[in-house]
Design goal:
Layout (H helix, E strand, L loop, with lengths): L1 H11 L1 H29 L9 H30 L5 H29 L1
Helix pairs in contact: 2-3, 2-4, 3-4
Length: about 120
């Protein structure tokens, strides 16, 4: 509960709002670069599937990466348009970061399956 209270206080404090927005945008920009690298890496011939189940998994991962990239761009532009950080945008930012971590884990699992 302490983190929710801390977030609420930070959102109410007008002096920290601008830095909170810029912090979210900065984190999402880094996330965008990481997604581009992951997409490029995943497109390499080394990651070509050898079975149908791996093919299905790789296609799902590729779709997830593309979807996350698009959502990331939309969220960045929405944050740049806003003067004040809204709870919804902050929650979406956290969700984007979690989704990126899940995709990264999926790629790691795929790589393990590909090797064995």
């Amino acid at each position: 509960m302490k983190s929710v209270q801390t977030i609420s206080r930070n959102l109410i404090d007008r002096s920290s709002i601008g830095s909170s927005i810029s912090h979210c945008v900065l984190k999402l920009e880094r996330n965008k670069k990481d997604l581009q690298q992951l997409e490029k890496q995943f497109g390499s011939y080394i990651y070509e599937p050898t079975t149908y189940s791996l093919f299905a998994k790789s296609e799902a991962i590729k779709r997830s990466i593309i979807s996350l990239k698009n959502n990331n761009l939309e969220l960045i532009s929405a944050l740049k348009r806003e003067r004040d950080l809204k709870i919804e945008l902050f929650e979406k930012t956290l969700l984007q970061i979690r989704s990126f971590m899940e995709i990264k884990n999926s790629v790691n699992e795929y790589c393990k399956q590909l090797r064995y």
